[in-house]
Amino acid sequence: MKLIKNSILILFIMTTTISAFAQQALFGGQDIKSPEIKADNSVVFRLFAPNADTVQITGDFLPTEKMKTQWGEFDAPGKALLKKDEKGVWSFTSAVLKPELYSYSFIIDGFTTTDPNNPFIVRDVASVTNIFIIGGGHADLYKVNDIPHGTVAKRWYDSPGLGMDRRITIYTPPGYEKSNEKYPVLYLLHGAGGDEEAWATLGRTAQILDNLIAQGKAKPMIVVMPNGNVIQDAAPGEGHEGFYKPQFMVAKTMDGTYEANFMDIIKFVESNYRVKADKANRAVAGLSMGGFHSLHISRYYPNTFDYVGLFSAAILPNQNVSSPVYADIDGTLKKQKDNGYKLYWIAIGNTDFLYQANTDFRKKLDDMGFKYTYRETDGGHIWRNWRIYLSEFTPMLFK
Amino acid sequence: MKLIKNSILILFIMTTTISAFAQQALFGGQDIKSPEIKADNSVVFRLFAPNADTVQITGDFLPTEKMKTQWGEFDAPGKALLKKDEKGVWSFTSAVLKPELYSYSFIIDGFTTTDPNNPFIVRDVASVTNIFIIGGGHADLYKVNDIPHGTVAKRWYDSPGLGMDRRITIYTPPGYEKSNEKYPVLYLLHGAGGDEEAWATLGRTAQILDNLIAQGKAKPMIVVMPNGNVIQDAAPGEGHEGFYKPQFMVAKTMDGTYEANFMDIIKFVESNYRVKADKANRAVAGLSMGGFHSLHISRYYPNTFDYVGLFSAAILPNQNVSSPVYADIDGTLKKQKDNGYKLYWIAIGNTDFLYQANTDFRKKLDDMGFKYTYRETDGGHIWRNWRIYLSEFTPMLFK
Fold first, then answer.
1. What does the pLDDT look like over B244-287, one tens digit per residue?
2. Under an 8 A CB cutoff, do A234 and B4 touch?
């Protein structure tokens, strides 16, 4: 009877991963490490591409570049050239980087693609990019540390209003399953192009909450991450429509349908989880389109949430949309004000294209004596800011 | 006060996804669809790469090619050339494909990479490939259909034996949360290079179970997918070691440590879920290294599982390993036989490099009168077979 020998292990390798290895380490004679974070927090990126003429890297750690388009000039992530060695390995060393979660892609002879040596990738709408973390400071909140961890579940709930079962991401805090306690709930909404995956992947919600709870900075809470696209039962690839290319805006995204049916989500959560089902223990927050949704959900149900967070929020509905949800914005805001709340938090970056819209909205709130807390950061309409906003918002909840 | 107009929506697009769009649709003047599944189940693959000299596709739907290496000759996924049009778009149309979940990569001037127009990707060890599904037949089990869905949770459990909190994937069937019933449990183990993500992503376990349960073919059951690498608390990138390049074999993988501490997992499941905690309602199965683990766990705890599945199993321990787990293989197999069980299922592909080892093992079982059911398929040591084995094994459980 045969025993497994090392040669069998080599065979394992050959058969299970031959296409991956063929391209690089085993046959290329290269053992590529990319990205390599140096002790001083500079980062070396490497790519084995002996036939390429030029290899560039583009990422949000490089100085932005102005990009001219038919709609005007915009900031785009910068680019840098890699240099090729005699073995066909291209490399680039970044400046010393500050703590942050960064993303990047390679551009090989004009073709933008992922780093084959870095399997850590996130999808944003239809595009996939590599990520890495420079630890320290606020970026330590994005790491998995050796602390108690909550559970992240992908569940399906029935939405009678939308007439379908829908997928939802739910974070329950460490100890939830073994506890008899009831918990407060944060409803956390994604932006256009996102879905029930976005906050958990791009936003690192579970890591941020685990860390803040372990540090005693945030109260243990449930975080509910629904899908804000009412025509979808689930994220692309996760629903009954199968695999299709995600779009930035889908139909019926900001027409009132989501807000009008939001109680289906609250009812599901409050009948399936041990929650404190009252205003003092409900928060709603979201980024961009999710900030829009949070604004309108919180005033349309004006006695439901004690905590509201608008992160780089799109503010007001398209003037072509006629929905009862948007019929009496001023009146419902006034009701929300009169009913009272603990925190109305508005955060935006100083180069965000929605900066002026948020300034106008704050003026409107000022004029009606509607209290809010304002937080302005550097930067634009980017996930880097939304992770920071989540990290700052959640410690203020349910106190 | 400003209303949001279409121009704002364009700005959204510009700022949130500029790096993705820059490469292709908006500025390249191309709206690429890839892959496109035609009505006859041929598939068109497209890539916009005007500067490339050659573009190939490699995938498991192409005829295999012989690959010579220093260790011998192996079957590798085949390749095909794409053809470039005047706009710089390369394309290739496959043959009419049979129902299956397929994976592929592009090779651009010798550089293997993903399809930037297909965000549906899976990681296998350190490599990332695109996937698509040709529906029909058994492949319909891999699709998300419009039926009740179970929940997939990523949780952490305490393993006193390994001295750490560890991440685990748990599928609970549709209705679990609202039911008072107790459920049977399948422990489903991954292969070398895998982790607690593998069965859920590459194996499409939730889709297969949802579909089989909806069709009345499998009993509602809980499926527990642990991490079989005892030095890891979680999959690469999901644990406290942060992001690092996954390896095919990690330390202490097949040295008895996992089997010796497997009761930590069973205890966690049986004290945290509504389960039928008896032999008749426990199954253990796994692929490759996970088949090895299933073989040894089921005989080391010889009165624990009524159902055992060895999928392309690595059979016997390395002769250099000395663990009490492997000290009395024949004796514990005999005990397992004498104690009785309902199903011992051995499945393997006829070109698997472990075929002979499985034949030898079956001979050993025959010689000792140890009953098993044998299933031989075409093909080798590949996920395609393991999805089929899971689809065939689960309907036989807990009947």
1. 999 888 899 899 999 999 999 999 999 999 999 999 999 999 99
2. no
Q: Does residue B1 belong to any structural domain of this protein?
A: no
Nearest-angstrom CA–CA distance, A202 and A386: 9
The Cα A299–Cα A256 span in angstroms is: 13
CATH number, domain at B239?
Answer: 3.40.50.1820
- For the stretch A133-178, pLDDT in tens is 999 999 999 999 999 999 999 999 999 999 999 999 999 999 999 9
Q: Are residues A7 and A89 in the same domain?
A: no
CB proximity under 8 Å: B 124-183 to A: 124-129, 131-133, 135, 143-146, 148-149, 151-156, 165, 167, 174, 177-178
Residue B230 lies in a domain: yes
Q: Any idea what the CATH number is for the domain that residue B126 is in?
A: 2.60.40.10
User: What is the Cα–Cα distance from B206 to B143, expressed in whole angstroms?
Assistant: 10
Instruction: Please check whether residue A216 touches B, CB under 8 A.
Output: no
The answer to whether the bond into B174 is cis (omega within 30° of 0) is: no
Residue B142 lies in a domain: no
Contact A4, B314 (CB under 8 A): yes
Tokens of B45: 């693959």
Evaluate whether residue B52 is within a structural domain: yes
Residues of A in contact with B321 (CB under 8 A): none
- Taking 3-state DSSP, the helix, strand and coil percentages for chain A, each rounded to the nearest 5, stand at 30, 30, 45
Of A261, A254, A334, the C-alpha closest to A286 is A254
Domain limits for position A38: 32-135
- Residue A138 vs residues A61, A275, A373, A391: alpha-carbon distances, Å: 16, 29, 21, 8
Structural domain total, chain B = 2
Q: Which of A4, A129, A249 sits opposite B318 (nearest CB)?
A: A4
Q: Measured between alpha carbons, how far is B325 from B317 in angstroms, rounded to an integer?
A: 10
Q: Which of B161, B116, B6, B266 lies closest to A320 in space, CA to CA?
A: B6
From B341's Cα to the closest Cα of chain A, the distance in A is: 25
Inspect the interface and report whether the beta carbons of B148 and A129 lie closer than 8 Å.
no
Is the pTM higher than 0.90? The answer reads yes
Q: How far, in Å, CA of A304 to CA of A297, rounded? A: 9
Same structural domain for residues A182 and A256? yes
What are A264-306's pLDDT values in tens digits? 999 999 999 999 999 999 999 999 999 999 999 999 999 999 9
Residue A37 forms contact with B (CB below 8 Å): no
One domain, residues A100 and A159: no
Q: What is the ipTM of this complex?
A: 0.93
β-strand pairing of A127-134 with A100-108: antiparallel
Last residue of a domain, one of B85, B114, B135: B135
Considering only alpha carbons, which residue of chain B is nearest residue A357?
B2
Statement: residue A56 has pLDDT above 50: yes
Q: Using CA atoms, how far apart are residues A4 and B57, in angstroms rounded to an integer?
A: 34
Within the 219-278 window of chain B, which residues sit less than 8 Å (CB to CB) from chain A? 233-234, 236-240, 242-243, 245-246, 248-249, 254, 272
Cβ-Cβ contacts under 8 Å, A318 against chain B: 3-5
Instruction: Examine the fold and report which residue of B100, B135, B170 is the final residue of a domain before the chain moves on.
Output: B135
Instruction: Report the run of H or E that residue A100 belongs to, with start and end.
Output: strand A100-108
Q: B157 φ, ψ to 5°?
A: -125, 155
Give bridge partners of residue B348 from the DSSP assignment: B376
| Owner of token pair 């693609």 | A113
